[in-house]
Amino acid sequence: MKPEDIRSSRAGEASRQKTGYWAYVPKPLPPELAYTSVLIKLLDEAARALGELAGLGRTLPDPRFLVRPAVRREAVLSSRIEGTLSTLGDLFRYEAEPQEVAQQADVREVHNYVIALEYGLDRLASLPISLRLIRELHERLVRGDRAPPGEFRTTQNWIGPPGATLAEATYVPPPVPQMLEALDAFERYLHADTDMPPLVRLAVIHVQFEMIHPFADGNGRIGRLLIVLLLVHWELLPRPLLYLSAFFERYRDDYYRALLEVSHQGRWEQWVEFFLRGVREQAREALDSARAIIDLREKYRALLAGRRTAKIAPDVADQLFVNPWVSAPMIRDRLKVNFRTAQKAIGDLAQLGILTEVTGQRRHRLWRAQEIMNILSKEDRGKEGAAS
């Protein structure tokens, strides 16, 4: 990073270090923003779409059918931005039969995101969003071979093309002493009273965390995970139903460019507009998916009503909305029935076209509810293919 790369001091400044390299030190939040007509319109549309999603979330008698799959989709897409190859189908399959998945390392990394997010949502009952909680999330997210889990970095890191040196980096976050000062200011802002609209505040918090880049690994995933937690913590949503990683992954180049342009050019308003477009699009998409899931569940209930099927068949059908991949041992253990009863229920659902066997094996068989997968993995069509 060169000092001439920083064309504006609105978000922070380049700082020359004793060893000769330049690093970026962000200014404390909040920035002064110009609320253009475009930004105001996007804020209104995003808030309205989010409000509709929140309204749906409050009426759900059993939110598991929407929340658990949504958490897993977020885990897959947030991790994919960082280079993992696992699909939503891989993750569901891993949770159904861990030993059957070939890409174990990638899938375990994605599953760690699920663990961290679910932990964070539970932890909110006893601990507000804070540096302590952020470290606890990181401890559950990353593998120890890349970075000390749960510890802020103690050395300089940087962002750039593969093999880039510190001098060749696209972006160099603040050195450790300034990083610690920035984190302290960041935490104070998380707890501060402000008149800034919550969605705008959420946008500036996300980019500020990425500019501080406090971990040796996992900064992007933690930063995107914080978006979900803050939406729930601030009661903008009653349940974690909105995730922006699908939008960020779909427009990955725009996402990284918009983040970088805040530090390099002070383009706060452009970043906020991009973020609000993401909220608007993903809230609308989440609403469509939720309604499709609710309709499909009712369809399956009607299909099973009055038919001579295994007594647990309706319960198994409901389980498919939590994980569309299923095996007889999985049903046996979850519903506390014997193996033959689990097999009978799966066979009944297969006869009705709800389940399809995907392994072609006589043993260790797995089944998939393709209609559910089609709804959940809209963004991954063409990436998951028939194996999903």
**Which whole number gives the mean pLDDT?**
91
Q: What spatial form do the alpha-carbon principal axes imply?
A: elongated
Beginning-to-end CA distance, first to last residue: 42 Å
Trace the largest sheet across and list its strands. Answer: 3-5-4
> Helix count?
15
| Percent of sequence in beta strands | under 5%
- Write the element-wise H/E pattern from the N-terminal end onward: EEHHHHHHHHHHHHEHHEEH
Radius of gyration: 23 Å
Would you give an account of this structure?
The structure is a single chain. This protein is mainly alpha-helical and 388 residues long. The protein is built from 15 helices and 5 strands. The strands form 2 sheets. It has a 3-stranded antiparallel sheet. A hairpin with a 5-residue loop joins β1 (12-16) and β2 (22-26). α2 (64-81) packs across α4. The longest helix is centred in the last third of the chain and has 37 residues, at 268-304.
How are the elements arranged and paired?
Blueprint: E1 12-16, E2 22-26, H1 37-59, H2 64-81, H3 88-96, H4 104-123, H5 131-141, H6 176-191, H7 198-212, H8 219-233, H9 245-250, H10 252-265, H11 268-304, H12 313-319, E3 325-326, H13 328-335, H14 339-351, E4 356-357, E5 367-368, H15 370-376
Antiparallel strand pairs: 1-2, 3-5, 4-5
